[in-house]
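Lab notebook, bench 4. The sequencing result for the construct came back, and we need a structural model before the next group meeting so we can plan mutations. Quick request posted to the team channel:

Model the 3D structure of this chain.
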Amino acid sequence: MSSTPSNRITTKAATLAHVQALIAGTNKHLPEQSFTFGGVTYTAASLIQVFQGLVNAMNARDVAEAGAKDALAAEKATQKQAAPTVLALKRFVLLTFASNSQVLGDFGLTPPKARTPLSTAQRAARAAKAKATRAARGTTSKKQKLAVKGNVTGVTVTPVTAPTAASPPAQPVTTAPSAPPVGVATK
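Done. Here's the predicted structure in token form:
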């Protein structure tokens, strides 16, 4: 097994594989040994139990994390589904009981603050800013837009002189009776 330069294992999967390899190696090469680590004596079987407990805890953590991810996804989906209904009820309660702060408190809501009217200076500043914005953007009213006309110069219009296909051919107008053409019999 390869190790990092600091001899630490960096991922959960690598740690799990490392502990399982320790269990397998102990079973294969040291089945009848006894060990003393930190003043505590272990048999091979008791050492394997400690390592197997670690493997079980790591697997339980993975299952819990997967379950937590699933639970979080389910919670988000439920919140997305319920959010419009929650908002609608809050608006309804605020409109219905706007003047009764006790009832709003029962719903966990606070009454909306009354709007403070703008001072004369604030209204004048707002109007000046709006006027400056209209001038900067070049926006005008409908009547002012109707007054704007474009000038076109340098365009030559060529009239069409050929007759259209839909019009019948012109008939010559005769004022005096003419003699019948030669070779044509008349009745």
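The mean pLDDT is 82.
Will bring this to the meeting.
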